[in-house]
Amino acid sequence: MAHNKFKGLGVALVTPFTSTGEVDYTSLRRLLDYQLSNGTDFLCVLGTTAETPTLTEEEKQNIINLCRDKVQGRIPILLGMGGNNTAAIVNQLAKADLRGIDGILSVCPYYNKPSQEGLYQHFRTIATHSPVPVVLYNVPGRTGVNMTAETTLRLARDCENIVAVKEASGNFGQIDDIIKNKPKDFDVISGDDGITFPLITLGAAGVISVIGNALPKEFSRMVRLALAGDYSNALTIHHKFAELFKLLFVDGNPAGVKAMLSSMGLLENELRLPLVPSRISTMERISAIVKELNIKC
């Protein structure tokens, strides 16, 4: 099986926008510097949190190029590359310039709701054609279909290029089943900030995080403590951020984390339709917590 580089704190990068709606590459560079200097273990580029469906192909390529040039191989880059048309993803893989990309994150097909056999064949086809390792992404709340533990484990055993799953089903029984029965070199990565601590205690290898955009130093410390078995100190940090975990998602993602990043002065609080900024009441509470935590950029 291919080696999984995606362990510890992975950050699902947001896409900053200007007040006039363009991609804010200056703020993106600033955010990347912030990640690189504050303990982030790997970056997830062009995932859900990046508002990727609203980006043009040119914007996506510009973002990939900027991230690749800024990171310069210092930490791994996981690139979002999924969809509900298997042939189109295979074609995309054939044409993509994946220099400096350490793996792809491929989401379960959405809208057309394939069977478990369909999911298996979809991901097996992608793994066969991908020149880099593949991380599966199970997020039934967004896709309308849940990839069962049985299907995930079947893919893990049959496809040596599939190295991990980002699990965002919220189903502890299902996730624990995968962790308990997975091949040795296959990893489970948390897809939810709020349950990262308990999942690591079960055997997860890390998280692909939203809150890490704003708190990479603090959240990476929690992840490292938990991975090292220091559950007491890790739990203290987990509890410290309990309210933030809820606030960042109450108005949808990435509205919450963009409100937080804006209050920290890292970017403008701008999203692209159909997404809109958090409600004023949510933003005020997030800003208050940022001040209470005395977070320095």
Q: Brief description of this entry?
A:
The chain is 46% helix and 12% strand. The protein is of the alpha/beta class and 297 residues long. Strands 1-2-3-4-5-6-7-8 form an 8-stranded parallel beta barrel, surrounded by 6 helices.
Label this structure with key terms.
single chain, 297 residues, alpha/beta, TIM Barrel, eight-stranded parallel β-barrel, 13 helices
Radius of gyration (CA) equals 18 Å
Largest sheet: 8 strands, parallel, barrel
CATH-defined fold name: TIM Barrel
> Would you tell me the structural class of the helices and strands?
alpha/beta
Top-tier CATH class: Alpha Beta
Folded structure, characterized:
The protein is an alpha/beta fold and 297 residues long. It has a single domain (8-236), classed as Aldolase class I (TIM Barrel, Alpha-Beta Barrel). It has helices at 25-36, 57-71, 86-95, 116-129, 140-143, 149-158, 172-181, 196-202, 216-227, 231-240, 242-250, 255-263, 280-293; strands at residues 8-12, 42-45, 77-80, 103-107, 134-138, 162-167, 187-190, 206-209.
